[in-house]
Amino acid sequence: MINAKARAVFNPEGSFKPASIERRDLQPDDILIEIKYAGICHSDIHATRGEWGPVNYPFVPGHEIAGIVSQVGSEVSKFTVGDRVGVGCMVDSCGECVHCHNGEEQYCLNGMTSTYGSIDKYGQYTQGGYSSHIVVKEGFVVRIPDSLELDVAAPLLCAGITTYSPLRHWGAAPGKKVAIVGLGGLGHMAVKLAHAMGAEVTVLSQTLKKKDDGLQLGADHYFATSDPETFKKLAGSFDLIVNTVSAKIDISAYLSLLALDGTMVNVGAPAEPLDVNVFSLIGHRRSFAGSSIGGIRETQEMLDFCAEHHIAPEIEVISANQIDEAWERVLASDVRYRFVIDINTMDNE
Fold first, then answer.
1. Beta bridge partners of 217
2. 14-37 pLDDT tens trace
3. Contact 305/280 with Cβ under 8 angstroms?
């Protein structure tokens, strides 16, 4: 087994403490990655605090991983030592079902293996990227283009692909009107990506305090949802709405903003159920959908798209000893727009 340094939580209300975790010895198709940076996702908080189900502690979250290949298994053919690589929200799937064969491993019918909080095929409980090293099957590793720095590449492995996938699937393109609900870690990436795809982009946020940021990121319009006039003015306007908010909102009110045959897609994942008035859908043949991350092929496509269009998240790099403070700031919406942990600082214990 390979010992890795980590930051772990030992109970639902606990703070992060230094820990040592075991990574499996390399199998023939495995890659050992020295992690350089790990992004902080709101999902990390939900999962670690048991809001999405039971948790085995100690628990190491983190599924926005960027690093360097330090060792490869005997059958690895796509990567060599020294390559710049990334790992996102999953590290395995059955590889046999129709979805896996179609490159949609995130929807594996037998259940994909999450980067943290899953039991893998070796019977081990997966631990995430708030750590110095990780061992991952070659097929679930992506190549980071040379033009993307590793620190900004890390959040693309979740925030980037989570927004890229629905924008691509539902056809964000020139001539399409796209609204992004929320301007946080996911939302700011959705704005950049939708703009690069050529869509007319509107941000829908509670207040106008981030309006200047939103317009600078690529939005064409910015409205405050706390103003009732917003919903009157924009009724029936959008072909696509991407909701990035991980909190309960009035879904039916937002559905009223869709044009005929428009779709609202949820990528934010609040812990509580969302209510939908069916008449908000029936009236204009609207759709309310959900979208997970992307498959490995699409994740590589997203990274290449970001490199080509010079797209990178807005980040704040922190040390491993600042994770607790960063989490509190995420919950207070006090981050512009993604925290990234410098894993090298784990040596400073």
1. none
2. 999 999 999 999 999 999 999 999
3. no
How many Cβ atoms from other residues are within 10 Å of residue 221's Cβ? 16
What is the structure's pLDDT at 52? 83
Q: Which residues contact 306 (CB under 8 A, 6 or more apart)?
A: 145, 148, 156, 160, 193, 312
Q: Which two tokens stand for residue 289?
A: 């959908």
Nearest Cα to Cα of residue 202 among 165, 237, 236, 169: 237
Taking only the tens place, the pLDDT of each residue in 297-320 is: 999 999 999 999 999 999 999 999
Distance CA 51, CA 246 (A): 12
Q: How far apart are CA 226 and CA 212, in angstroms?
A: 17
Is the Cβ–Cβ distance between 292 and 316 less than 8 Å?
Answer: no
Neighbours of 279 (CB within 10 A): 9
In the chain, the amino acid numbered 149 is E
DSSP state for residue 134 in the 8-state scheme: E
Tokens of 122: 């070796």
Query: Nearest Cα to 266, choosing from 233, 290, 230?
Result: 290
For 4, phi then psi, to 5°, come to: -125, 140
- For residue 242, give Cα distances in angstroms to 102, 226, 236: 24, 18, 15
Instruction: Tally the C-alpha atoms within 13 A of residue 58's C-alpha that lie toward its C-beta.
Output: 17
Q: DSSP 3-state assignment of 70?
A: strand
Helix, strand, coil share of the chain (percent; to 5): 30, 30, 45
Contact call for residues 204 and 180 (beta carbons, < 8 A): yes
Residue type at position 182:
G
Convert the pLDDT of each residue in 250-301 to its tens digit: 999 999 999 999 999 999 877 788 889 999 999 899 999 999 999 999 999 9
Q: What percent of the chain has pLDDT over 90?
A: 90
pLDDT on residue 1: 84
Reported as type and span, the H/E element at residue 17 is strand 17-23
Long-range contacts (CB closer than 8 Å, 24 or more residues apart) made by 221-230: 225/181, 230/204
